[in-house]
Design goal:
It is found in: Cytoplasm, Cytoskeleton, Cilium axoneme. This protein is of the alpha/beta class and 572 residues long. It is built from 18 helices and 22 strands.
């Protein structure tokens, strides 16, 4: 369930808060067992349910008052469907305040009609149009579009994705941002490919946008410019904007911009040291700023005026020299960085970084090391850092990091240490195996372990490993609330062990992912029994790709009708 009370696309809507949302569900790919459960629930649950039927594929939705219309990623939504949903919602007295059309590809060719529908709704709090509807809009019309839609949105969050608008489109868009009626706070401009240079934002586009950011009317707080090469002139213009007291920008993404290099970073970094600069989040993924660019950025982080709290740096060509400079900045008392995403370091680098994590001045709470060669040796160095009293890390991402059982055991040992503050471990696509799972299970039973979320998707865990984790879940010391075991070989035996754990009063698990685990009917039936137990606290269960047949589906359907069942989201 989303934070606003709506239910996520792709899951079966089971329960919802009263009078919050109407959601269209693209359920054409749902297996027959899913339809069996849906049909059995329709009479018993007042869910915000819209669905495409198997026969006739006609839209059916409940009589449900709403103020949110969420159609994200619904491939079957066209203008007629949108018009029907809006009419039925408004005719029943709903005052729509938020509309999400993200990923609705069929709306591309009829945007003029979509716009007319939206204008007819009156003023909205938020409008999301990401990933599809606007990609073919003529750049010359972009500013007019923004002005028209902004005039009907009160603007808490206005998320617009437009691609390939080019420098000319950027200039007209910037003019719209300076309009007093424009309420836009977030702007996403992403080119699908580098392609034709005429579609690039470029220095001219950046200069126009930078001028808009300095206007007192501009309310932009988030700017995403993906695959829009910008040079030194653009960096200088952006830097001037960040120094301006009127500029409200807090988040800047310049991912995969081929034109951004060390000279760009050297031109932009000094702006981060200005007292007026409000930037807190900077993404430079796939941007080749090199060691020199990282050094300029590190100098900014050491400045008392710099407010950066989140920095994403992957694929930057920084090398060990650049990353060591960044590590040194973490030791500075002025550095406010709390979230960092970087590439892996060689083992010598790991030892140096370990000392930085243990520095009293280091404020890092979240570290991302994704798709990197951390290996067992790197995991051992990280484990040593986690045991340091000064280390404040609460979230660690080590996905696809080539860590095996030995590295897993080292991290498990750290989790049992009183100084370790880790609450979330993202560890998917590593070779954990049953031995590693057993080590983690032992750690979960330790009173010192603070882990609440553990992701072990695609980590070669079998039934034996699942059984060890199930035992841990029944321990009073275990604090785990979220467990991901998708893409493993848990099987029916592992599912039955986990089901037994869910029935234990000590088990605190609220989310369990068992996608693609050959759970089958036997495992589904065991989980269904657990769902009917008063002790079971599970709210989200993912069972897709498990070969569940009619028997398992009937057992789950019966469980969902039980008064003790607390499940809100079920994936099949």
């Amino acid at each position: 369930m989303n934070s606003d009370g709506t239910l996520r696309t792709g899951s079966l809507p089971l329960q919802t808060r009263a009078s919050t949302s109407i959601t269209l569900w693209d359920l054409l790919s749902l297996p027959d067992v899913g339809w069996l459960i849906l049909d059995s629930l329709r009479a018993d649950h007042q869910a915000a349910l819209g669905r495409v039927s198997k026969r006739g594929r006609q839209l059916v939705e409940q009589d449900y008052a709403t103020d949110h219309l969420r159609l994200a990623d619904c491939s079957k939504v066209n203008v007629d469907v949108l018009r029907t949903l809006v009419l039925r919602a408004t005719n029943r007295g709903a005052a729509l305040k938020a509309v999400d059309l993200s990923g609705c590809q069929q709306l591309r060719e009829s945007w003029d009609k979509v716009e007319a529908i939206l204008v007819g709704l009156g003023r909205l709090n938020s409008l999301h149009i990401e990933g599809g509807p606007l990609v073919r809009i003529n750049p010359d019309n972009e500013a007019g579009l923004v002005q028209r839609l902004s005039s009907i949105a009160e603007g808490i969050y206005f998320d617009l994705l437009a691609s390939d608008i080019g420098a000319a489109g950027a200039v007209t868009l910037a003019a719209a941002l300076r309009d007093a009626n424009c309420k836009m706070q977030a702007l996403h401009l992403e080119r699908r490919t580098y392609g034709d240079a005429r579609t690039a934002f470029g220095d001219a586009g950046m200069e126009a946008l930078a001028a808009a950011l300095q206007d007192a009317n501009c309310k932009l707080q988030t700017l995403h410019l993906t695959r829009h090469p910008v040079g030194v002139a653009g960096a200088e213009a952006l830097g001037a904007a960040l120094r301006d007291a009127n500029c409200q920008l807090q988040t800047l993404r310049l991912d995969r911009n081929a034109g951004v290099g060390a000279d760009f970073m050297q031109a932009l970094a000094p702006a981060l040291q200005h007292a007026n600069c409000k930037l807190q989040t900077l993404h430079l993924q796939g941007v080749r700023v090199g060691a020199a660019g990282i050094e300029a950025l590190a100098a900014a982080l050491r400045d008392a005026n710099c407010k950066l709290q989140m920095l994403h740096l992957t694929g930057n060509g920084a090398g060990n020299a650049g990353l060591m400079t960044l590590a040194a900045a973490l030791r500075n008392a002025n550095c406010k960085l709390q979230t960092l995403q970087i590439t892996a370091l060689e083992i010598l680098g790991w030892r140096r970084w370990r000392r930085r994590f243990g520095d009293a001045n280091c404020k890092l709470l979240t570290l991302h090391l994704i798709n990197d060669d951390v290996g067992d040796a790197g995991a051992q160095e990280l484990a040593a850092a986690l045991r340091d009293a000064n280390c404040k890390l609460q979230t660690l991402h080590l996905n696809s990091s080539r860590v095996g059982a030995a590295g897993t055991e080292s991290l498990a040992g750290a989790l049992r240490h009183a100084n370790c503050k880790l609450q979330t471990l993202q560890f998917f696509n590593n070779t954990v195996g049953d031995a590693g799972a057993a080590a983690l299970a032992l750690a979960l039973q330790d009173a010192n372990c603070k882990l609440q979320k553990l992701n072990l998707d695609n980590t070669h865990v079998g039934a034996a490993g699942a059984q060890e984790l199930a035992l841990a879940l029944q321990d009073a010391n275990c604090k785990l609330q979220i467990l991901h075991l998708g893409g493993n070989a848990v099987g029916a035996d592992g599912a039955e062990a986990l089901a037994a754990a869910l029935r234990d009063a000590n088990c605190k698990l609220q989310t369990l992912h068992l996608t693609r685990n050959t759970v089958g009917d036997a495992g589904a039936a065991a989980l269904a029994v657990a769902l009917r137990d008063a002790n079971c606290k599970l709210q989200t269960l993912k069972l897709d790709g498990n070969g569940i047949g009619t028997g398992g589906a009937e057992a789950l359907a019966a469980a969902l009708r039980d008064a003790n069942c607390k499940l809100q989201i079920l994936h099949l």
